[in-house]
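user: Here is a favour to ask of a fellow structure person. I have my own habits and do not want them to colour yours. Could you put it straight underneath, so I can go through it closely?

assistant:
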Amino acid sequence: MVLNTDPQKVQHKPHWTPGETPIESFGDQNKDDIYYREGHPDVAGIDANDESSWNYRKLVIVGDMHVGKTALLLTFDQGDFGGGYHPTVHNQKSKLVIDGKLVALDMFDTVSDGHYDRLRPLSYPGAHILLVAFSVDARYTFDNVIENWMPEILHFCKDVPFILVGTKTDLRHEEKTSRKPVGQGGEALVTTEEGQELAKQIGAYMYLECSVERDEGVKEVFLAASRIALHGLSLKDKESKKGKGCVVL
């Protein structure tokens, strides 16, 4: 199977309309949103021990190697990435309270090595939200959002909302990046404005930035993703969604 990788043809118009959701502004997170690493959430009038009280949602994160996908998941789930190399974690589970509702979020990491291209789509079925990550200090990972990841998303998950995420923003504050220049003569770090423009071009639900090193914006990424995943099912009649979503061919 050959996917379309022509950037001129990757013009995605989202099937959802952000204004139709209860989410009018993601700039300020709901102060009542809570993430629990241990124990059960305590929400008035809701029995956390009752299976039917939970809204189960699936998140999948994609992006080039070394953009920090695993670090992002582990920092949110464990509170501290700890540095160093960590293998792909594949699956993490989190418990959250979003807009007064219990959310059980399954977070699926993915491997970007070319050897896994045929296996990676097995992670997509049932996804409610995708995170498409690139590193601001490696422009090729930014370019590959259109070159590689959008064709794959449009093929397997064309009806699933996604957030574009710029990682490693702490490197903007360093005099030198941790990488050697990836282009001839060196290449400038990806700016916030470039990320916002790309998000509009590809039809992302929104653009967010974060730094695992400084623990900045990490929680906001997952709370926003959880809210979109939670309310996304109400954007369209559930019956009309049958047969849609992520597919494996």
The longest strand covers residues 54-63.
